[in-house]
Specification:
This protein is an alpha+beta fold and about 400 residues long. It is about 25% helix and about 25% strand. Strands 1, 2, 3, 4, 5, 6, 7, 8, 9, 10 and 11 form an eleven-stranded mixed β-sheet that branches. Strand 9 and strand 10 form a beta hairpin. Helix 4 crosses helix 5.
């Protein structure tokens, strides 16, 4: 049977109907943008845009830091990030998240104040390290450098504390080619005082030979314990502190830099270097043997660079003894933390100052100068703490 011919009118109606259907189907394939809106090609990121990325990042972390400073937020009607609009700005979603984050940090400020620690001013600066653009997404690596001034410092109390922290920022472009900051992630251990991210933790560590490891007792965190002054003269504790404060935000080329190499980073390597500067001697041998301790530019024992392995060596060698309370720590002593309380220690720090009964620790990953033990306890109240007299 031959096919029937459509009339001219019916043919025209059929064509229009099909065209309309194709338009409707095509709409489903387009981004969720209003019909007829101008859509630019994948935008480029020029030097001016990169500079604005950096300025927005600077405002973002300044807002966070100021939440910890007495009176800083009340001096402004709105966050610094609210002043960005147009080509580069904060997304509405991240803006809401940061409102909550700043409220939490203000709560941390109040907790610190109850422990006798307040900051009178702060300075935050952000440098842009690298920008990677893929279509309508830009990933920006930055380094934050922050200095906080302790309020009402007296006598020999430290006047400031500071840290460096790496971050990764994600910007996404809208249909007009305008960039919005949608996400911020810490790229190191997340130990800065103005961060809310969880610190990196190490997997539980066991020795190859199956020996029972020396188990350090936990230290209490209550204020004003019975003092335990240092009486030994075997080591130069001032030299330990001087080394740590010289290299807190730089790296001695005589040793490898493990910052950014997974959980744990460079913290124990840095503390071992400081102890060595104060007189700890090498114990050469097999790198995996926790009873050995040595570190050079070319080779390091696990006990020189590993958090748990250092603890095992320190106790087995009798070079340290445990302290019952973190506030008993003195200059040259070592503090470790177990963030998730799984029995495997995650972070190592060295005391470089003490005043008013409060020890101040310096460490790598994040690189931090003279952070008070009170600040650590306020930020990580559920962590386990281990205090070592060197």
């Amino acid at each position: 049977m031959k096919s029937r011919k459509l009339s001219r009118t019916r043919r025209r109606a059929t064509i229009l109907t099909a065209a309309a259907a194709s338009v409707v189907a095509g709409v489903a394939l387009l981004p969720n943008w209003s019909a007829g809106a101008a859509v630019v090609d994948d935008p480029t990121v020029d030097a001016k845009t990169k500079a604005t990325f950096q300025k927005l990042a600077d405002a973002f972390f300044t807002d966070r830091t100021d939440a910890l400073v007495d009176g800083a937020q009340s001096k402004r009607d709105k966050p610094l990030t609210a002043g960005f609009s147009g080509h580069v700005k904060l997304s509405s979603g991240l803006s809401r998240t940061e409102d909550s984050a700043r409220d939490t940090l203000e709560g941390r400020k109040d907790k610190l104040a109850s422990l006798g620690e307040e900051y009178s001013k702060a300075n935050t600066a952000v440098t842009l390290n690298a920008t990677r653009v893929e279509g309508r997404r830009a990933t920006v690596a930055v380094t934050e450098t922050t200095t906080l001034t302790y309020a009402q410092a007296r006598g020999n109390e430290p006047r400031t504390t500071g840290f460096q922290a790496g971050h990764e920022l994600t910007f996404k472009a809208d249909r007009h080619g305008n960039w919005q900051l949608t996400d911020v992630k810490d790229t190191d251990s997340g130990l800065a005082v103005n961060t809310l991210s969880k610190p990196a933790v190490k997997a539980p560590t066991t020795a190859d030979d199956g020996d029972t490891m020396p188990n350090a007792p936990r230290a209490a965190t209550t204020r004003n314990p019975v003092a335990v002054p240092k009486t030994g003269t075997t080591y130069d504790y001032k030299a330990m502190a001087a080394y740590a404060e010289k290299y807190w935000n730089v790296y001695n080329k005589d040793y490898p830099d493990f910052n950014g190499h997974g959980a744990g980073g460079d913290c124990t390597n840095f503390v071992s270097q400081s102890l060595k500067a104060g007189g700890w001697k090498h114990v050469p041998g097999y790198v995996y043997d926790y009873t050995k301790w040595f570190g050079t530019a070319d080779i390091q024992s696990d006990s020189f660079v590993g958090v748990n392995e250092w603890s095992w060596f320190a106790q087995n060698s009798k070079r340290t003894k445990p302290l019952a309370n973190v506030y008993q720590l003195e200059v040259g002593d070592v503090l470790q933390m177990d963030f998730d309380r799984d029995g495997s220690k995650d972070h190592t720090m060295i005391v470089t100052a003490k005043s008013g009964g409060v020890p101040y620790v310096t460490y790598h990953s994040n690189n931090t100068f003279r952070r008070s033990v009170a600040s650590l306890i306020a930020s990580y109240p559920t962590a386990y703490y281990y205090a070592y007299r060197t």
